[in-house]
Amino acid sequence: MSDVLVRVTIDGREISVPKGMLIVDAAKKLGIDIPVFCYHPKMKPVGMCRMCLVEVGRPQRDRATGQVVRNENGQPVMQFAGKLETACTTPVEDGWEIRVDSPLAREGRQQVVEFLLTSHPLDCPVCDKGGECPLQNQTMSQGAGTSRFPFDDKQHLAKKVLLGELIFLDRERCIQCARCVRFQEEIAGDPVIGFFERGRKLEIVTFSEPGFDSVFSGNTTDICPVGALTTADFRFGARPWEMNNAASICPHCPVGCNLTLNTRREAKSNGREVIKRVLPRQNEAVNELWICDKGRFGHHYASGPERLTRPMVRRDGVLVESSWDEALAHASDGLQAAHASLVGIVGGRASNEDLFNFRRLVEGLGGTAFLQSSMSGGEWVQKVGLGSSANLGHLGQGDAILVAASDLHQEAPLWWLRLKQAAERGATLTVLNARPTRLDAYATHVLRCAYGDTEAAMLGLANAVRARPELAKYPADAGVRASAAAMSSADRLVILFGQDGLDFGGTEAMARAGVALLTATGHAGKPDCGLVAVWPQGNVQGAWDVGVWPDPDRAREALSTAKSILIMAADPLGDDPAQAETLPAGCFLVVQELTMTETAKRADVVFPAQSFVEREGSFTSGERRVQRFYPAIRPLGDALPDFEILARIGRRSGLVLADTASEVLQAMAADLPDYAGISYQTLAQVEPQWPLAGGDDLYLGGTAYKNLQGVGTPLSSAAERGEPIAVNLMEPETARGRGTGVLLVPVTRLYDRGATLLPSTLLAQRLAQRAIILNPEEARRHSLSADEPGQVHLDGRAHSVTVRTDAAIPAGVALVPRSVGVPIEEPTRAELSRMPEPVTS
Amino acid sequence: MAEHILLRHRDLPGLDRLEVYRKHGGFEPLRQTVTTQTPAQVIDLVKASGLRGRGGAGFPAGVKWSFLTPNVFPRYVVANADESEPGTFKDREILEQNPFQFLEGVAICAYAAQANLAYVYCRGEFWDLAQVLEDKLGEMRAAGFLGKKLFGTDYALDIRVHLGAGAYICGEETALLESLEGKLGQPRLRPPFPAAEGLYGKPTVINNVETLTNLPPIVSRGAAWYRSIGTEKSPGPKVFCLSGHIVRPGNYELPLGTTFRELIYTHGGGIPGGRRLKAIMPAGASSSILAATDAVLDTPMDYESVAALGSALGSASLILMDETVDMAWVVRKTTEFFKHESCGKCTPCREGTYWMLHLSERLTGDGRRPADAALLESVARGMQGKCLCALGEFSTTPVTTALERFRQEFPASAEGSA
């Protein structure tokens, strides 16, 4: 939008707004709500619904001189066209006078409402949108109050059309505003729904298989201005006014989307509060107004029947429910006895508060705490992360983005969406990966390397940016040089790296090479520049910040001699059953968990932990924004937050740990320089957001968009604070990845089979399959046929899988989704074979 | 008119054959244009001729071309052969019988617009005609009237035929562009106009078949000659389509400014059975219906004079209705058409045409209620000025003008409004 300001008068009130701003937005700035249906501030205006009709007066100009004609008082003479104009498509010009609340404009809008209602079933009493429905609100505020259209003559259409198994269409309620169609095309980049037929027969159809195949599909139900689109999760679930709101943060991936959890007490849940739906909460620096379907539909694990609600101890070889006292006494005795042979393993979905107390407890008892993660690099994100002004929405023309070794669409969908938009705004996007990904379509440079050569390719980029003798052996082709040139000359540079095709050391090498790129191009520490790790879990960066770091080799070694083990929010034995055999016989195992995992089943003490919907806490996103989440429902049974369980164990072991969330964060702020000054008060602060959303206005559909509970605090990076950044590049191990068989590469699927997604049965059809995906040629080489069973041989064990073929997968490689039961975390050589013929006797 | 300029095949049999067309000077105007004129000179010539768009709006063609965003390429030219207005069948005759003059016009326009690719967008029902046009284009390519290095210059041009899927709305220029791009035929928001962002977002000229067919004679005979035909503000010949209650229905090429009376009674042979002419729809279904008074009959048919009657010349497709016609029936028929063809994009048209049909069916049927006519008028007026494109607006004009000018034929209205 232009920097030039223009003055306009709307209903007698003057305002200065940037030239080119639409009338509807300028009015919004004045607090005047011009009703809209098709208009959405995130999408190009189309002017279809004709709801936003206003009178526009333009200063009359003398035809000969071009000068504004003035009356005897020196005031410009305004010319009003006889015709009403759409406020959503008309950019304001200097000196305009707009009448929203005039008889003519009111009459026009009343007529449009009347037209809309001729087709509408008026089934508000049973409609999901009733109570938060723009059509309902506008009928009340703009409509005539009576109908001249006979109700008997209404058309009747299908009330439940499955666009997919997640999104349902009520054809009678649809007002053909095309918000959903345009969202899918313009924002989500998944044009899988569209209009079919014409006139009053116009209907929304899906033309993908499976139906409405988009990980952003749920957003269309938020922006639908009527009750036409509903989710399978919420349809007929509750009335909006019955529900309470709680602000939350999505725990599934490192984006940290801001959420609102809508809850209600329900008879069918014995009067318990339950989560009825998950909505995005506006944070223009993080997720704007959107969330992905994993965040929206993948919440059932947090309050499902699988949840543990009582502490358990092993008695006579069997886990039985116990009192907290007994379990705590037993656990603290066992953990204290181990001293240096105490090992702590924690997962990246634990909150900052949990992680902080975990480290304090384990180290306080003399043990060592490890983060369970096969990806490294968090230290470098602390040093050259995005910094305190982080907002991917700032990126555009003149900026460069590198996404390396990540399938962002599956790993962090909102980052994918925001980088796609940055590329559409003109940013130079480079995608470096060993296989094609959805982001390639928006990239200026697609750099393809072989699996095993990703680090080398990254070093090639580093060498192309600034030649170093030791990197001369890493070649740079024309594409690499062009990408490097774009990075060097860019105003801003953001580098995201993942772990696709990399082992732990490989990700460390990638992080370091990323740091080298940022420092060599002079971008380290600059606003909106930096390194972002696409972590496999939501709060991995928080773990690094708290000082619980991963080290798979040392962790394995420590476990093999451990006397006591404390495991929190992780399920190593579920991930790899073979690990159970490597645990020392007789070692004492304490587990803090949500559900009875494989690891918990093996434990001596199991503590029931609260999920993120029952408690307070904070997560640190991949962009290093610390964000606060709030309790939404009352805790299940006797479950306690992890940090509190740890504090109670500590108390029995002679360690004083803070036992309320705010006190833990206070302790963190005192202990960790990067978190100095952060408190629940600062995390609850809000900033003005644009576009304005939520509230009682008629501007956007949906409830609870507005961010009233905190936009979080982005942490500064060391580079930003002017600290010197020195990095030693790591050269790839040449031996890695050689050997016989195929290179089995674990890949991340958004809809994984992890414990946090399986309970959401809605997504069952879309979950990752227990399959390997390989090139058809490669499949033939191993005598494997597409869609037939096959076997993967790993460490002497055979794992049965379904064989899928995809010509885009490079030869010599087989992809296997993480979490489907083939226990690999890093690329590994494996033999493939056909399923043995059943033995007949 | 002694000589046919647009329906030239009526004077020259076999004009749809390339050799006949060439024998009568065909493609000389194109050769002359491409080899001796600059695009700007062509635009100036067309501006000077005063040629106005024959699709209905009557916008000066040369002025439209000069709106093309400078220095943005590629550009496109699109010939609108989606002739779908009820009662309009002039383009079809040109396409069938004088195709080369039309295609030469497309080529001249493309040169003026500096476009290297032009499309002829035919309505879906013209599928056989589209095949014939493809053949004609093949002949042109073989003869060197299309292709690279046209007439030895650096100018390259190809013309392609695209068949619509049978939607009236695709005659609206922006809906046509959507359809041509393979999308659902729905009009776009304007601005931007096609001259700025047209086909595939590029500067585009869209003209009607008849408009383009005027170009070869303008080039060969000059603007002054062209202005000698017709009126000062509406120069040139026009093909008038006569249908309905008329002795000799068909196309008549006459100068703009010919009176209704001359067209209907001199050329069309008057009303069958000597019955009284009651009403005229001068622009097909999209008409403001005129009562056939003497004042109307003596009005010259040019853009200004018909507009002064409170109507519009539009595509000059006259549907004539004698005294036996029930105007409520006419309202129902036209509304049925518009309801069927409404694309559904904007609310007033999608819902309003449906509601108007509902009411006009009731008006002509058994369930008539006293206030129906007044309600119908109110619904039509409620749509006016609010629709996204002209289709919605046009759907209301037969309704409101019939109610206004033939109120006595809607007896219920008297009771209703009393």
Biggest sheet architecture of chain A: 7 strands, mixed
Count of DSSP-assigned helices of chain A = 23
CATH architecture of the largest domain in chain B: 3-Layer(aba) Sandwich
The CATH architecture classification of the largest domain in chain A is 3-Layer(aba) Sandwich
Model regions low in confidence, pLDDT < 50 over at least 5 residues of chain B:
413-418
Distance between the termini of chain A: 78 Å
Can you count the beta strands of chain B? 9
Largest chain interface and its two residue counts?
A: A-B, 33 and 31 residues
Q: How much beta of chain B, percentage-wise?
A: 5-15%
Give a brief rundown of this model.
Chain A has 23 helices and 35 strands.
Write a structural description.
The complex is a heterodimer of chains A (841) and B (418). Chain A is α/β, with parallel strands linked by helices. Chain A folds into five domains: 5-101, Ubiquitin-like (UB roll) (Roll); 124-133 and 154-302, Alpha-Beta Plaits (2-Layer Sandwich); 312-373 and 559-621 and 634-683, Rossmann fold (3-Layer(aba) Sandwich), CATH 3.40.50.740; 378-534, Dimethylsulfoxide Reductase, domain 2 (3-Layer(aba) Sandwich), CATH 3.40.228; 742-834, Beta Barrel (Barwin-like endoglucanases). The model of chain A has no long low-confidence stretch (mean pLDDT 94). Chain B is 44% helix and 13% strand. Chain B has helices at 18-23, 28-36, 39-49, 61-66, 90-97, 99-113, 127-143, 173-180, 209-213, 215-227, 260-267, 294-297, 303-308, 327-341, 347-363, 372-383, 390-405, 411-417; strands at residues 76-81, 117-122, 158-163, 204-208, 237-244, 250-255, 277-285, 290-291, 317-322. In chain B, helix 3 (39-49) packs across helix 6, helix 15 runs antiparallel to helix 16 and helix 15 (347-363) runs parallel beside helix 17 (390-405). Chain A binds chain B through residues 45-51, 53, 82-84, 89, 108, 111-112, 114-116, 118-119, 148-149, 153, 175-176, 194-195, 197-202, and chain B through 167, 169, 184-186, 189, 339-348, 350-355, 358, 375, 378, 382-383, 385-388.
